[in-house]
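_Per-residue structure_
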Amino acid sequence: MAENEKQSIQQLNKKGKGFQHWQVMAVLMACYDILASNASYLFGLWARFDFQYSQIPDYYLQSAIRFIPIYSIAVLFAFASHYLYQSIWRFASYKELIRLISANGITFLVQLFGITLLFQRMPFAYYFFGVILQFFLTTVVRFFYRFVVLERGKRSSSEFEKKVMIIGAGEAGQVLLRDIFHASEINYKVCCFIDDNPNKWRRNIEGIPVVGGREDILSAVEKYQIDLILIAIPSASREQTRDILDICKETGCELKLLPGMYQLLNGEVSLSRMKEVAVEDLLGREPIKVNLTEILNSIEGKVILVTGGGGSIGSELCRQIAGHNPERLIIFDVYENNAYDIEQELKSSYANLNLTVLIGSVRDSRRLNSVFEKYRPDIVYHAAAHKHVPLMEASPCESIKNNVIGTYKTACAAMQYGAKRFVLISTDKAVNPTNIMGASKRLCEMVIQSMDYISREGKQDILPNLSGHNDETDSRKVFLDQKIETRTEFVAVRFGNVLGSNGSVIPLFQKQIAKGGPVTVTHPDIIRYFMTIPEAVSLVLQAGTYAKGGEIFTLDMGEPVKIDTLARNLIKLCGYKPDVDIKIQYVGLRPGEKLYEEKLMAEEGLERTANELIHIGKPIPFDMEAFMGQLEELAQAAYGNDEDIRRMVKKIVTTYHPMHL
């Protein structure tokens, strides 16, 4: 060990054995309290007799002096029991003031009754001036550093790291202001408040002016040269917050937002709780509500299997399922790194969770069957899929193998081993698809509808062999001599793009902005439906509770968003100007991509559920027995890497309109 390291350790050991600075200060403060408290009452006695020491009767003076030791012990006990020697006075607030009032009140009662009962009743001025002066002296010394040294030093500093505007002059804004005043590790200067309540305009909060409403944001930013805007309106709706953010993002200032009302109610308003404004905040949608009781009842005590559990949607499914007390959660994924990451996260967050993480492919019938046979899952959430549109256009057979055949094999295993419910994660790209990925997901939906029919009617004899490998078990044969004991409800849930998922445009845009641009947008008019991952997953879980079998649930994604607008907003949130600091470059539609996505096919219609954000599309009828035969041919073509696979898909999915055949 280096000599300087040894010396440092020795110094730390010496410091640990001695008194800490605050302990020394506490002893000095206790001595001061004793001196100030007794002097206060002696002053009261002196004041009673016109400040003439010679006029004080001896019996009064002797009583006061003889009571000093008793009163000193009472002061020490009262102040110590109120933790007044352990407080950090640079952060002193009204709570410390309340404790001071209480401690002084207790010592006053000791003085009032103690000296009267033990010695004699003292003059009124003795008690009156004594308690007032004692409270003044013991309070001023404690708040001197807080209000004089710290505040004046901070306010008089001519160099600030950031000049701050707080939007919201309510309780949250005031708490935030005090938190900034107390924070020693930052050097912020709050310059002004903004609030839409005209009654607060041209008034001050702790010396900080309320300069006007939201229409004054831009002018106030310029006047005070604001660097940071803190939005502290926890009661505002998402739409109101979006309108304010639309103004703020034009300023080029750094933006931070207080997430919600619960923080104010729980007393958690502080600078550290402020979050960076994200693109989803600009969407302005109200929080999605689900029936947690229904979800809990459907999951609690059940064995749940999530395929593709390490992906964006799959991992969030696992997070939310873990919070609903399943008997066992099984994560099944082909990519071990993602599976490991979610495993470690869930172990850390849910210590009592019965978690099993397995590696395997949904294309492997034998691996799937072994998992289902051993664990017998009650509910299967099938999130495993290839989802990247351009990559699948370049490898169409892989899209069929993984998405369609993988779904079929997983569904077969679920039916064979008595799963009660199978939920397919689908996409709005399955509606009138123009790319092979969307067409493959439409095929997955048709598989689910067919499997529900087979499970309901006991028609397992129509199941084709989609093994793809000569040595694999024929999926059809396992059912021929076996009666299906448990009815499996097969459903699909269809939704659009999720913000922040793997392959989402948001991470791509952020990387491009970090490099200085350009930000690449495929087309100025391209639109997409967006939802956050937790929102989408909560609705998937809710939709699963409505399942009766064969439904295609569609999630209401709100209003569509132009990708160009999304890119420009993201650039502004990063403090840059679009087309000035960061260029936007239009690169044209990618293979298989269309300008807009649809949530439902025209033929499907729409049926409401108990949740207004979840709808059921009326299934399009098709010959399921013929479809099973087509599926077998499609599997053979996919495993044979047939370059003409798109034509085969088009014959099956009549709504598929590929851009290139």
